[in-house]
Amino acid sequence: MPPTAESLDLIRRRHPEWREHQLRWRWLLDSLEGGERYRQAVYGYDLRGLPIRNLIRHKREYPDPREAAGSMYDPYLPGMSPFAVGSDPAAMATDDDYELRRARTPVPTFVAEAIDTHLSRIYAREIKRVGPDRLMGWWSDVDGCGTTIDQWMAETVAPLLLTLGQLDLAFDHPAVPAGEEVETRADAERLGLDRCVASYILPENMLWWRLDETGHRYAECLVREVHEGIGGLAGDWLEGPADREGLGGPFRAGLGGRDERFRLWTDEDSTLYDGEGNVLSVTPHPFGRVPIVRVFDRRKPRCKNIGQPRYEGVAERQREYYNRDSELILSDTTQAHPLLQGPEDFVQADGTIPIGPSWLLPKKKNSQGGSTTYEGFDVVDFPKDGADSIRKNKADLRDDVDRDSALVRPTGRDGVAQSGLSKAFDHSDGNNRLAKIAKILGRAEELIAEMASTVLDDGPPDPRSIWIVYPTEFDLFTAADMAAATASFQQLVAGAGALPIIEGLMLAKLTRLCLPGLGDIQYAECDEELTAYLDERHRGREGGEAATGASAS
pTM for this structure? Predict the structure, then answer.
């Protein structure tokens, strides 16, 4: 049946919030992935028709329009462009300063480093999960490929969620195998169709949605899917100008192999369309709601369904560091070969200087005035102040990343070794950051467990039967750090007792800084022990002073 105007209009829908943020999402994912994807990524085209990349082009690095127009390197000819996906980064690193910088500059990995550091601490601790038997079984295989919930969260969901600030997770029964018919529940159990298979949807592929009256669930949503076809050819997706719908990235070249399709989800079924608007299949489901949930790190205050990326500032500094590093590489490369300044008479018409055997460079002889002199050659030294400034700025950017991510260094940021309590303050900040991230991941996993139970039971679960607890206390101290902090604390406590109320308040706060992440009951016990000790010290001081006064009398 030919597509109708309504179906064509449906697959072309794009939510206003998607249009506003889709390019930013792709840039954040590139920042997480790094490497060649980060180096080759294109985020549109500038006014002169050249690709906008993570490496910013200087004004002097634009080619002469008279030379670039119509050449084989024209960016409007994607089939001939050296910027095609998979090309070597050094393909254009000839006499083009911009391409030289882009080819030789290593891509920093600040975003991946920060996220890996935080998640490795969180998932090194035990996560407590309690739920119904079917859910406990699903936690051992969440995607139908034997992936456990710990692996799926630590390696897939958590990095994407923290990078993007949001992530859509889809839950469904496995597809019916080819040639099989399902008529009874026994058939479904025999074929394993009563299981739940979880997957993720990148926000750039969640094209349009409508929320229900609560504003927290999808009433309808349109998802872009890429299906592998038969007889695909290498290179059927090429890098080229931004497509007409603003999707960006690779575009369909029509060579077969990968088909872009669209699936509309409702609370009753899902309808699959091809790129022309033809209905390919309609699949009903018994879940009573769209089996897709969007989990958030934090929500943007001016958007209804968009998350706030936690590491966006780190990604910005990563790009700035990348650009400054490229400037240093170009500067060091060009200044590694000094300029030679000598007599003008030696310069030939073609701009060359004659060199004798064994690289002998003759000197100009001057016989005027009755004496013979020789004009020497001078090496022109390049000023290094600009490069030193860039190097200092790079170090400042690295420190900013550490500060934003609460990454603790062995020494202070000024290069001075930290004391035990100073390290405790930094570790307390780091523990609080990790506890906040762990709380977000725990809340996301609760939503995941509820949706998985909905699919397993073909209906809403009892949320009271699901219990997930992430850790809030993390061992950030080394043995030496802990010993130094303990010694400093004991020294302070040994001299206390003169002002029990004030000292009690200060030492209680210090206890929380040195031992972050404990429960309220544990902190209350620490406060009681500290109060009893200070009271005893204070009574001892008063008794000693009274005895001293009596003996003096």
Answer: 0.75
